[in-house]
Structure formats: C-alpha cells, structure tokens
User: Fold this.
Amino acid sequence: MTSITTTCRDISELLPAAQTACRLLFQECFKAGIKNIFITETYRSQERQIYLYAQGRTRPGQIVTWTLDSNHKSRLAWDIAVGPPQSLYDVTTLNRVGTIAHKLGITWGGDWVGSIDRPHFEVKVNWKIPAGYKLEGKLNVPTNSKGQVQLIVEGKPKEEIKVTQTWNPESPTMKTEAENFITQAVKDGIIQESHLKDLQNGVMTTDRLIGLYITIQQRRN
Assistant:
C-alpha cells in the first residue's frame, strides 16, 4: 500500500479517459512550444487526501487543498508544474496550458472561483478526444523538472534534437550548449565522462554527437 506521504506521478494510474486527455494536453503543449512542464501528481488515495487537507489546518504547513473530495482519488485528475527557467508555478505558463485545455474540453482549476488551482486539470469519465485532434506519436511526459516534453512522430524529424548536421565546433555558442547538455548527463550518471572529454578535446564528430544526444534522451525516458 502506498504511503499517504508518497506522491503518485504515474499516468497509468489514471482512468483511460484521463490518461488520454493528459497525454493529449502534453502533446498540444509541446506543439505550442511549451516543453518545460511536468506531472507532479495523478492518483491520490482518500487517505492521502485527508492527510493533505489537514496541512495548514490541524497539521503545520501551508494549505494545499480545499476539499476532501478530490477527483484525484477518482483517477480523473492530474497536477502539473513548470520547469526551469520559469518558476515552479509560473502563472504565464500555466495560463497558456489552461487555454489549450479549454480547446480540448479539459477542466482547468484556473477557472474555478474562490479556490483557483492553476496546476490542476481533470476530465469526466466519459471525456472523448475532440474532433480534429488525435494522439500523434510517441510522447514523453516528464515527472520531474529535469525532463522536457518530447513528441516523436514516425516519418517526421525528431523535433527534440537540437544538435543537427549544422554543428560547428568553431561556434562558441553551440559548443557551450552541447557541453552543458553532456555535462549534465554525466552528472546524472546517464553516460560516461569520456564522452565529455572527447567533446572538450575537439574529437567529437557531428554524427557521434547526434547519436549521443538521442541516447541520452532515450535513457531519460
């Protein structure tokens, strides 16, 4: 049994309609250029809801929920947050996501009166994908601030690949960007430090750099 202090961020714990709605929302956000959002909670047991409701009331801390009857426990709701460089609950970004949710028939907590909850999204059990939309490919939905939303569609360029055949080792900006990315992957234990040294020593080929970038992204998934 999951502890009441443990947050569930697994989309598969949602009901099918909510899983699809959540994925569609992240897909459409990606297409709109919003890639630094991530899941902070999906399913929440009634016991955990009671525990969270007590915070700021009978337990120390700030109030984090206004109800004992959340759709999180019905497996029909999910919360998100915003990754760097924005703040965790950047209002501008959450408002943009909320606007996209409107188009998809997804309820957004930012529309609620009296208890605005911008990170919160939910659907009814009978929600369907609106006309004109569909899930288009392999989607990566991050569950922490280090990830980025990614969409890979067969037959189309992989939009998440920033280092392309135009890689130029003589370009300071491009070299710095690539070096920072690989440095972080080394710190995260995803790749060996020898790759970073090869880049710094100027022996990293364009093809190898692209392959390395793809490998890192796949392992983050």
